Amino acid sequence: MRVLFSRRPTPVLPGLVPGIHARTRRVDGRDKPGHDMCGAAGRSLGALVLALTLAACQATQPAPVTIATRFDAKAAAFVKATGTTRIDGHAFIKKPSGTPAFAVGEIVRLVPATAYAKERFDKLFGGAKFVAATAYAKAEETDPAYVEMTRTTKSESSGRFSFENVAPGTYYVTTQIVWRPDEAKPWQGGAVYEIVTVTGKEDKPIKVILNGV
Question: Is the pTM of this model over 0.85?
Fold first, then answer.
């Protein structure tokens, strides 16, 4: 019997849509023709390996988060308005080696700071501005309108990004900075966010640094 580990996809920013959570290895414990073990014994052992692996994965995944606040689309509507302010950002964190890691080609999201969003960010990030990729959590339920009432852009290879014509209001600006030393090791880095308030009276771009501090 041979146990196969599939390639794990890049982690997805936590808590935006139902089902987003930390990525774990999936195991194929089925015995195949020509393998050393076959028959009922091989299938039993394969099933045991699969069960133990899944149990270990479940044990390491954060429990789903309950969001008590109801999403109010009207309170978030300002994100779709056309303003005059530009937000220029830079997303990076420091690796254990001391070298910087940038958000390369990642989706950066501008989220209206509604009561619903505040509870989500507080709970999914555990009160911090950084959450490790191995600890990404998901909400038990997510109002689809919450995702629709956001704006997105993509970061450059340097980790820099911009939002044009932003309307007045307070926003969460969030993305992730992740990397993996090699295919056999888990993703490192994680998700970050910062809070930005736009007044509409700015005469120059608002600068924001996303580094989880």
Answer: no
